[in-house]
Write a structure and sequence with these properties.
With 424 residues, this protein is of the alpha/beta class. The chain folds into 2 domains: 2-216 and 402-418, Rossmann fold, CATH 3.40.50; 227-399, Rossmann fold (3-Layer(aba) Sandwich). Helix content is 38%, strand content 15%. The chain contains 15 helices and 13 strands. The chain has helices at residues 14-27, 54-70, 94-98, 114-122, 169-181, 193-199, 227-234, 257-270, 274-277, 307-316, 331-338, 351-354, 369-382, 385-399, 402-418; strands spanning 2-6, 32-37, 47-49, 101-104, 127-131, 186-190, 209-210, 241-249, 278-285, 298-302, 319-322, 343-346, 361-364. The chain has a 7-stranded parallel β-sheet. Strands 10-9-8-11-12-13 form a 6-stranded parallel β-sheet, with helices on both faces. α4 runs parallel beside α5. It starts with a strand and ends in a 6-residue tail after the last helix.
Length: 424
Amino acid sequence: MRVLIVNTNELTGGAAVAANRLMEALNNNGVKAKMLVKEKATENLTVVGLPSSFRQKWNFLYERWCIFWHLHLKRNRLFEIDIANVGNDITRLREFKEADIIHLHWINQGMLSVENIQKILASGKPVVWTMHDLWPATAICHYANSCKKYQTSCANCPLLPGGGGANDLAAKVWRRKQKAYQKGNILFVPCSKWLERTAKESALLKGHFVKSVPNAIDQHSFCKKDKTEARQKVGLPTDKRIILFASQRITDQRKGIDYLVKALEKMVKEHPETRENTVVAILGGHAEDVVNQLPLTAFPLGFVSDEKTIVNIYNAADVFVLPSLQDNLPNTIMEALACGVPCVGFRVGGIPEEIDHLKNGYVAEYKSIDDLSRGIFWVLSEANAEELSTNAIRKVAKSYSQQTVALKYIEVYTQAAATKHFRL
């Protein structure tokens, strides 16, 4: 079986990380998998970049301009919306023609247009689409928040100025997606059970296969190491308790840095000793921007791409905190658990599927600063650290190992090949 994984980026973003890990898992379990990306960033022979051209940059800029125009020249929601009005015809590529299965991942920002997807379906090849967010099931948004319009049809979009209108940009993209999806059968695979439940509510996906399969992780790379040695390697104190927060962009409000700041303020107020015995490590871009907001000594580590360094940073931590306000199945929580680090996060999205409350971490009530603070302190000061660590590693081995995830996808591919000529 030959699978072509299609993703916008090779390395940048959670979807790229997940796609790479899946490719490795498949190749390690008897499937010949390659990945097609917009721009190749490494020497990996199993990754292919699109032919270099000015059009790649033009696609991105033109789509952003169209969105910018519909936002009445305001930037505040410029990257919350994707309309897939331009992209690349990959059906002419050798890698596409050789593939038995076309496996789409995150294909926005000029990689594929809705019409490109329609052409892929018209080719007759089985198509599987891993959903890293809700965009395939809505018109233009990646996270619907409280909006439920996608359950019937998108229009009057709350992301557009004045609520859009009955025939706004969302309504037009919705009709384009409807037309495209009717050209063939897509097997949609959300990364979490939460996203599966949400996607099944979409009128766009009615009649299509929708079943969740989690992301995979390599436990040979992400594993527990000596904490003192890990701290020494990344320059973190060996005599303090370390809270770790990580995000590709620390200032991304969706990842909840503001809630972490307030929760730590509350913890320090209630437990003054933590000011002396606890520090915060911040992993990700713009880390230095939030240092002065924290009530504890902070170590901004910046953006790190080297996997061995990232593993050492996880191993240096006593607890990983990700108070996301919206999320699917965060790779960062999975990575921390694989390294034996207990995690704390809100009860939202797929996070409660990763964190087993009071077993490998703490699931705080959504947007509750009090409960988030309580959970962080519980992990640091009251729980059995070794028991939490053991449970974290067991959870990853059972649910997210390469073999477990690869076998689940092989089942999906088999079903895709068997059902490509009709709708479920």
